[in-house]
Design a protein that fits this description.
This protein is α/β, with parallel strands linked by helices. Helix content is about 40%, strand content about 15%. The chain is built from 12 helices and 8 strands. α1 crosses α12.
């Protein structure tokens, strides 16, 4: 049975999608079967692993509104052991459609919970993967709520900047509310420090303040601010394929090993799993 991890921060530009793509690809290279769920209507994780949106026949949107089976919507990527549940712009209107579906089912006397749609679908494929990562949109709406209801844990990327902790309490409150209302077993997987500029005292001060706040929840790996990391998604490749020898590749491989170690399994460095 795989582990479902939502990568979430309601603040944009913190390295959330970059982490979703590169952590997923790194774990795949280390021999883990990984599913990346693109839950952002912008679909950046989809294009970031090299999928042309014009080629998508079925996406997470069709799955959520019950127009497609999840097995039919999951597609292979060029990266080893990595599959994708893609997204594109039609996902932006899914909240209204889920409300209408809920009304329809209730009138017919049937159960339907729009907050649990993603969970219901992922449970159908959970045992086929070691890890399922959900790339959440930069908001705390119905899509993120679905992710929190479906996930075993959350991974929170936090940018190494002055206002890093601003908004984090809102996110923690949302997680606590999800624990109370829809997912009592939801845990914090870890806090990932991203976009560190090492030649500034400010960045290092932020690192210390976040470690002081989250303590052992903070990963040892810190993701540096690198042009190559920013460029890779526009080429449809994870950093380990775009620039194998870069510091970004090393950082995300180290993070993948931390995730594996934390979850009590050894990496398979050959990456040769069926």
């Amino acid at each position: 049975m795989g582990k479902i991890i939502a990568i979430v921060n309601q603040k944009g530009g913190v390295g959330k999608t970059t982490t979703s793509i590169n952590l997923s690809a790194s774990l795949g290279w280390l021999g883990k079967k990984v599913l990346l769920v693109d839950l952002d209507p912008q679909g950046n994780a989809t294009t970031g692993v090299g999928i042309d949106k014009g080629d998508i026949k079925s996406s997470v949107y069709e799955v959520l509104v019950m127009k497609s089976k999840i097995e039919d919507a999951i597609i292979k990527t060029k990266s080893k052991n990595l599959k994708l549940l893609p997204a594109y712009l039609n996902l932006a209107g899914v909240d209204m459609e889920l409300i209408e579906l809920e009304k329809k089912y209730r009138l017919e006397g049937n159960k339907f919970n729009r907050v649990l749609r993603l969970k219901e679908e992922l449970l159908l494929v959970k045992d086929k993967f070691d890890y399922i990562f959900i790339d959440c949109p930069p908001s705390l709406g119905i899509l993120t709520t679905n992710a929190l209801a479906a996930a075993d844990s959350v991974l929170i990327p936090v940018q190494c900047e002055y206002f890093a902790l601003e908004g984090i309490m809102q996110l923690i409150n949302t997680i606590m509310l999800a624990q109370k209302k829809v997912n009592p077993n939801l845990d914090i997987e870890g806090v990932l420090l991203t976009m560190l500029t090492t030649n500034t005292n400010l960045g290092l001060e932020v690192v210390e303040s976040i470690k002081g706040f989250f303590k052992e929840r903070v990963y040892d790996t810190i993701i540096p601010r690198l042009i190559r990391l920013a460029e890779a998604p526009s080429h449809g490749k994870p950093i380990l394929e775009y620039e194998p020898r870069s510091r970004g590749t090393l950082a995300y491989m180290n993070l993948a090993k931390e995730v594996i170690e934390k979850n009590g399994t050894k990496e398979e460095s050959s990456g040769e799993r069926a």
